[in-house]
Amino acid sequence: MRIRTLMLGWEFPPYISGGLGTACFGLTKAMDRLGMPVTFVLPRAKPIRLVAGTGEPVGSESADDPLHYAFRHVRLRPVGAALTPYASAGMVGVASRHASGLDRFGLDLEADSHAIYGPDMVAEVHRYAEKVLQIAETEEFDIIHAHDWMTYPAGVALAAHSGKPLVIHVHSTEFDRSGEHVNQYVYDIERHAMHVANRIIAVSNYTRNIIISRYGVSPEKVEVVYNGVDGHGAYNGGGRQAWPAKTDKVVLFLGRITMQKGPEYFLYAAKKVLEKMNNVKFIMAGDGDLLYGSIELAAHLGIGHQVFFTRFLRGDDVHKAYQMADLYVMPSVSEPFGIAPLEALQHDVPVLVSKQSGIAEAFRNALKVDFWDINEMANKMIAVLRHPPLHEMLRVEGRKEAFRFRWEDSAARVNEIYHATLGVA
Fold first, then answer.
1. Which residues constitute the domain of residue 358?
2. CA-CA distances (angstroms) from residue 221 to 212, 360, 399?
3. Cβ of 243: how many Cβ atoms within 10 Å?
4. What is the distance, to the nearest Å, from the Cα of residue 347 to the centroid of all Cα atoms in its chain?
5. CA distances from 170 to 311, 329, 337 (A)
6. Based on the domain organization, do 222 and 313 belong to the same domain?
7. Smallest Cα–Cα separation from 43: which of 65, 26, 20, 63?
8. Could you please report the per-residue DSSP string of 248-289?
């Protein structure tokens, strides 16, 4: 049976703010290749135009350029809602630029765990739900698949209205994003949806355990489906860039600069690396509520001249950042999965990841460290930068392993979950 899916998401490349858009695009493309009919409802103020065709990519087929990918079985339905999940540094404002996290290291910074969300989120979440109910009146579907908390109210309402089963896909929880200082509104939405949903997909066992222990969900209800990388769109660009100078080693942080991603631990480890090596540059590529606080912390540590803040990157700029890097570091405090390390390995960049991540449980050929252990983090950075055999082993074996995480396998497992939820063969 070909199950028709009404999929609800809040971002899709090229309109992305984080890894969810990349994950939704990778999974949806793989579902398309498997012949799974999907209608993807996406909040967007302006219409999205997809290239019509026979399923073959037109022009560039990359995770950054989905509008040049022609789907056979997937349709995007944009709706008039502007879900902006994470506040940029500019949106936070001067008074709350120094959000939670950096003050633990002795700086007089103001904590504001709610600064991570954009303005008017409550209204936009409800607007999106109303639009979804309207669109559903003109769609035929067998199952509802909702990605992350902003689409859960729409999914719950649609399931109640239509009588169709609801599958929710948990890419991140409020405990990942805000630590113990959760936004009660967001937590309540997540918990309610988890208990209403027929089935829950978690992106790792790490996330599954949070769902069970923090939200009181029955273990039998939660399935693990790992994210993947797109081997069809693997980047095979040119050689390393000339900047920074070729004599410099480059360590890359690429992600949202927010409490969840551990930017302060990265900077403190960078300080320790530079005490032993002076030919290292650190790139922090991303935006977020801790951007300005991180810039000030780098200056406070006396390493501001060695750390480059690029703000948010997209498209070819992301590829160039990977090309320049000798090592990618993901020091996340709590990371449900972590697609960026797999992308780094696609670009032949070895990776160091925190043990508090889903990718750490599933991946062998990466260095791993507790996010809080800045001494060990620095030691492992130095080891990779100083010892070419270690760098080469992590690069070669890591790249091989990365391509074993295939979106087609993820999509096939999602299809099995759909059939089990519906009780059909």
1. 232-402
2. 9, 23, 33
3. 12
4. 18
5. 27, 24, 10
6. no
7. 20
8. SEEEEEES--SGGG-HHHHHHHHHHHHTT-SSEEEEEE--ST
Tell me, yes or no, whether 262 and 380 share the same domain: yes
Flag whether the pTM goes above 0.70: yes
pLDDT in tens, 69-123: 788 999 989 887 766 655 555 444 333 333 334 444 444 333 344 444 555 788 8
Whether residue 110 lies inside any domain: the answer is no
Closest-CA residue to 101 (of 113, 93, 89, 90): 113
32: left (phi over 0), alpha (psi -120 to 50) or beta: alpha
CA distances from residue 7 to 19, 136, 186 in whole angstroms, order as listed: 17, 11, 20
d(CA 344, CA 323): 9
Q: What is the pLDDT of residues 285-312, one digit of tens each?
A: 999 999 999 999 999 999 999 999 999 9
Token representation of residue 324 = 């320049």
Rounded to 5 degrees, φ, ψ at 74 are -115, 135
Q: Based on the domain organization, do 152 and 186 belong to the same domain?
A: yes
SS3 199: strand
Q: Which structure tokens are listed for 157?
A: 């309402």
Cα separation, 293 vs 264, in Å, equals 9
**Residue 219 forms part of a structural domain:** yes
- Distance from C-alpha of 408 to C-alpha of 202, rounded to nearest angstrom: 17
